[in-house]
Amino acid sequence: MKVFFLFLSFILLNTSVYAHGISAEDMQAMTDGGNLHYIWLGATHMLTGYDHLLFLLGVVFFLTTTKDIVKFVTVFTIGHSITLIFATFMSINANYYLIDAVIALSVIYKAFDNNKGFQNYLGVKSPNLLLMVLIFGLIHGFGLSTRLQQLPLGEQNFDMLLKIISFNIGVEIGQILALIVMLGVLIQWRKTASFLQLSKVANDVLMFAGFMLFLMQLHGYLHTVNEEEFGFNRDEHYHIHMDMEKAKQKRRTYDSL
């Protein structure tokens, strides 16, 4: 039980890592490197993509058979692979804060469903879980696509497609590694009496985490759309970054002397 909450805390405390963020170093590596770099980036993206990991944790939380785990993870994989590849290749884009906000809602939805919220609070039967996992998988893939499109994918269709597929392969590798850890923790926790006692609490925490992520993404969206309301002037922000870059150049020049 302690291991589970430590694992969940580790994911939540990594909110300083953007779920699908592309750093300047990653962009340069992708420019200089080949398809293997895209595989590596895809894997690290999934392993640091806390919104994806939280949703995946919710999906497998109560799954106890290998058949069910494979079935639901496969459906989720198919969903996010379709939109990741298609949307990126066709250059279909959207505000990634809004997409990530919906992804955060998927975390809330799964935790709510795990705690039988539809039956207990709404008095209705839960929607078909396999279908919902597929739908949310499509949305998660679109979220990945919005960030992948920030990279230099090239102008030749075949070369671009190879890079997209390489990134997707990396995502699946990262997903498998994350699943191994999640299932290992859950299997050990299920052997203790505290699993039945605290499983509802764990999903309440998962729901709260999704809600906080949702607020964070909405804040990010409003911040980019209405900068002035947050005391954030686009021109001033640009000049600040230019001044920072000039300061870095001066330091490099001074260090080289």
| Helical content band | over 70%
Mean pLDDT: 83
Order of helices and strands: HHHHHHHHHHH
Estimate what percentage of residues fall within beta strands. Answer: under 5%
Q: How many helix segments?
A: 11
Helix/strand structural class: mainly alpha
How would you describe the shape?
A: globular
How far is the N terminus from the C terminus?
56 Å
Largest sheet: none
Given as residue ranges, the uncertain stretches (5+ residues, pLDDT < 50) are 15-20, 227-242
How many β-strand runs?
0
CA radius of gyration: 20 Å
Please characterize this protein's 3D structure:
- This protein is mainly alpha-helical and 257 residues long.
- Helix content is 79%, strand content 0%.
- It has eleven helices and no strands.
- It has helices spanning 2-13, 24-32, 35-48, 50-60, 66-89, 96-114, 117-122, 129-148, 157-190, 194-225, 234-256.
- Helix 3 packs parallel to helix 9 (157-190), helix 5 (66-89) packs parallel to helix 8 and helix 5 (66-89) packs antiparallel against helix 9.
- The radius of gyration is 20 Å and the shape is globular.
